[in-house]
Specification:
The chain has helices spanning 13-20, 70-75, 77-82, 86-91, 97-100, 105-111, 117-123, 139-142, 217-230, 241-259; strands at residues 3-9, 25-28, 40-46, 55-57, 61-65, 127-131, 135-138, 152-158, 163-169, 179-186, 189-195, 202-205. The chain has 262 residues and is an alpha+beta fold. It has 3 domains: 3-46, no CATH class; 55-158, Uridine Diphospho-n-acetylenolpyruvylglucosamine Reductase, domain 3 (2-Layer Sandwich); 163-259, CO dehydrogenase flavoprotein, C-terminal domain (Enolase-like, domain 1). It binds flavin-adenine dinucleotide.
Length: 262
């Protein structure tokens, strides 16, 4: 349980940013992660008055506000039609519907958890975070940036006609993932993000052009080995590093097959 001394529902991002400069302040998402801790929060910053709970679509992109809930992503027709249900697939195993009705996109992505399903999926898309002070930053950069006191305002996903498939492996449904994997294909180029290694998601590109436009079984096998060789895997209570590296090849192969291997 945590203790909040002062609770502020802010009227602007500027107000939130100024308050959050103090080390004893915390922005609130859905509080699901924070409630597991025991700290005393001097100033809790509630963003719920800032209209950040919308998913907006235009010709070029989807814009997803920080206070959008994971469940909103799961049931959003536009997002799921455009991205082959990968958005739904990357949140559907996170605890349960009631939980996903509370957990926010802002809390999930700003935290950059190693086990994050949505972070893995977003990394394989042309996606960006919009930070109040830091501006628009590609997810590929944001994932490795140090934590600071900026405020995540929204996520932007470009509509670039890529195909994507998302898969994870869990020891039991709704547990934290043992490994997460997203493969996307734009034109004839494949990109792979693998997370929960148990380190946070990392991206591997087909720099050696192993895969053709319609990859054969042999090409897929070779590429899966290549991806595995480019990443580090570790052990924790859920799985050994040997199991994770094996799983990586399996999930990469399955994802490629889903989006168009032969
Ligand atoms: C029991 C449990 C199981 C889980 N299982 C999974 C899983 O299997 N897969 C998975 O991907 N995730 C999982 N999660 C993580 C979960 O999906 C959310 O990512 C997590 O709860 C954070 O979201 P939240 O809205 O609750 O954020 P909070 O707990 O409210 O906040 C988390 C952190 O983010 C900061 N923050 C929140 N919003 C912003 C913002 N807009 N700008 C800047 N900082 C911000 C907060 O200050 C805090 O430090 C699990 C969490 C729990 C508690």
């Amino acid at each position: 349980m945590f203790t909040i001394k002062k609770y502020v529902v802010v009227d602007s991002l500027e107000e939130a940013y100024k308050l959050n400069k103090s080390k004893k302040a915390n922005v609130l998402g859905g509080l699901l992660w924070m409630k597991m801790g025991k700290k005393t929060i001097q100033t809790a910053i509630d963003l719920s008055n800032l209209n950040l709970d919308k998913i907006e679509e235009n010709d070029e992109c989807f814009e997803i506000g920080a206070m959008v809930r994971l469940r909103d992503l799961e049931v959003h027709e536009g997002l799921n039609n455009y991205f082959n249900n990968a958005i739904k697939d990357c949140v559907k195993s996170i605890v349960g519907v009631q939980f996903r009705n509370c957990a926010t996109v802002g809390g999930s992505i700003f935290s950059r958890f190693g086990f994050s399903d949505p972070l893995t999926c977003l990394l394989a898309l042309d996606s960006y975070v919009k930070l109040y002070k830091g501006g628009i930053i590609p997810m590929k950069e944001f994932v490795n940036m140090p934590y600071d006191s900026d405020i995540l305002e929204k996520i932007i996903i470009k509509k670039d006609n890529r195909k994507i498939s998302y898969m994870s492996h869990r020891n039991i449904s709704t547990d934290f993932p043992v490994l997460t994997c997203a493969v996307s294909k734009i034109d004839d180029k494949f990109e792979v993000a693998v997370g929960a290694r148990p380190q946070k998601a990392a991206l591997v590109l087909d720099e050696e052009n192993i895969l053709s436009d319609e990859p054969t079984k042999e090409e897929i096998e070779k590429f899966a080995d290549y991806v595995e060789s480019k990443l580090e895997f570790g052990s924790n209570m859920r799985a050994s590093k040997e199991f994770r590296s094996h799983l990586c090849k399996v999930l990469v192969r399955r994802c490629i097959n889903e989006i168009g291997g032969m």
